């Protein structure tokens, strides 16, 4: 069989979520191609997967940054998300509350505009490639709006691959997976219905037949259409393993990381890592700063208990960590969860507040408002996740749940049957 993967070309992180399943297909003897805008092609080849470049050289993140005012519509302290009923205090997932329709439309149109533009640029080349290569199955990120067009035009089964709480249902679009309700065209981002019309593809919400989902079942929002749970397998890029990553230090090791998307969207004025480093400087812990070169420059001099792991993938040293401070991005969050590491989350942008509020409901972490948290509060939160037995037990429970979820190889078997049906 031939399997076509289409990750969103914003940052490498959504690609990394797809890599374990793509390699599972290859290990099972299938052909795999990854089709992306040229901006992400180098990141794909670094994973060892073959790439097909489609579309002109459009950088989705440039468009996202330009329209980040729209993204800030969903930014709020995680406590607000919890109070809104998006994640309950007892760990049970719950559906989003009714949203203000005008505000929801503004969010949808501002946040989705770069993705609609990316779809318009990708579709002609993606369609030509698929016509020639003839995949048996298309596996796509939830935000690649070109994939349903190609799948529908060529009669190929379409599967979406999500990577967190199903927040996309709040901004209805063609990879939602649900049956149509109400004015579907009016629910879609501006310009997207016209793109589908141009290619002769029906404007409807249920193009995907299944949804591959690595988010813990106990925390996922209910009612996800065609859900196929899959074990999250940490992949944060390739690198040499540093010697210290295998050490078990004599004092707790605390990872501090910040996502590339957060840095780009929030801007320097919202950079909170100096406060985090200061908060941990006086604690009896070893701080590992898993950051980019650009963020390292912003930090200046560091305390004696800190080391820098510049561009070192988290999964290479997370087993040796006792806690993590992160931005609530799904990759950082799930990587730590795989190893039962309790978390302090300080979300700022995009879906991170929602991720943090949802995961916080497990009891395996603490969420702080990054705009208000003082050094003392940050230090107290880290001390709590290091010592609180209930928090650590909850983190172990999530780890066990992830470990007990079917691996990518099992999902390959299910998707093979779907493609051959």
TrEMBL record:
Gene3D superfamilies: Glycogen Phosphorylase B (3.40.50.2000). Keywords: Glycosyltransferase, Signal, Transferase. It comes from the Bacteria. Residues 23-259 form the Erythromycin biosynthesis protein CIII-like N-terminal domain. Residues 275-418 form the Erythromycin biosynthesis protein CIII-like C-terminal domain. Residues 1-24 form the signal peptide. CDD domains: GT1_Gtf-like. Belongs to the glycosyltransferase 28 family. This is Nucleotide disphospho-sugar-binding domain-containing protein. It comes from Micromonospora harpali. The lineage of its organism: Bacteria, Bacillati, Actinomycetota, Actinomycetes, Micromonosporales.
